[in-house]
């Protein structure tokens, strides 16, 4: 997020900052009295459309470690809530953090329970935030950011102490694997560099003794101590911590730390508050202390932002799709115009070529019909050869038959709904003579007709007036039994309905 608001509460004094382009600007302080709260409500109303992150540096902060069985989902959350209420009774702000699972068969989970034990100090500010309905992401403690601060300063997650100055107090935190498990805030009366150095070294020793009493560390364990202080106190701290036995001091210059974090607005005093605010603006912890009611408007703002992002994504997709369709339409229109131009050019060339053709006294439909009939005849011209072959096979069996003429015809009438062009009827008209005795002429003709009819799909009819009927052949046979063979004319029509 490029722009948001940061609230910092320390010793009942609330300070609001604006986070813009990586720097803290427009610091405004508010007192916990009536006018200060009214001014704070006006400030929230003036910036009600922005997100707010609240960082608290309070001495009333308590930590407890617990071990729970390996659970999931609602059962785990219910157990954590019950454990937290057992340790921190009353209307306090609580949170929990998983410290990992044990390397045993049961895989018990280690938990760190934390709470602000003095909610009265936060309650007036909470009420003002609830009444203003601003989007509060959460309430965070400076101790939650201690491990992240050391990591950003180039120190890997480890077990040790971190001591930072916050105005007239020193924040002491005990870290295990980079996570704060204990912290306290100690006030200091003298802020001179020498006095500050002596106080830091002394508090490190006291905290070591406390951890030894709690059996958090061993007596021979080397305890790293990281101290962030002003430049004037660096040398006294090094000298004071030189002979501290198992305490290994690492002194970090406050301006150098600000440069390492790339703060555009460095600390203007000896407080490390701006370092923590910078971390909070960039990387908020997953756990926070605010309840769901206080974060209700933040959830609504997230949903609203998600809907806006979805709408913008849909609008962008629709715009890209419209642009793609427009591009394709432009290309298709250009191709259509090109094809229309080519078609017009071809039509023009056709008319020029057609103008050179000889003029015929026939219209185009009739010419098209004639060409179609010619194409049909060309497609069936092979059928005549098959018909003549079948006729020659029959004449080989009847030697007395002589043919004088053949007339082959193909019916080119339009086929019916169930007919195809390959099944057009054909007819073959035969004219010839029967060279045989009168007595055998009729039998010869009947034999010839029978052999023709024996072929599949073939119909044979006697064709008047040239054909001699069966009665005339029979009369000739009875009246001239001893006459020699003579040629008698006949005429037949063979009709066939078959495929090619």
Description:
The longest helix is centred in the middle third of the chain and has 60 residues, at 296-355. Helix 1 packs parallel to helix 3, helix 5 (193-213) crosses helix 6 and helix 12 (438-453) runs antiparallel to helix 13 (470-479). A 5-stranded mixed β-sheet has the order 3-2-1-4-8. A 5-stranded mixed β-sheet has the order 11-10-9-12-13. A 4-stranded antiparallel β-sheet has the order 14-15-17-16, covered by helices on one side. The chain starts with a strand and ends with a strand. Among the domains are: 154-260, Nucleotidyltransferase, domain 5; 380-496, Alpha-Beta Plaits (2-Layer Sandwich), CATH 3.30.70. The chain has 13 helices and 17 strands. It has 500 residues and is an alpha+beta fold. It is rod-shaped, with a radius of gyration of 56 Å.
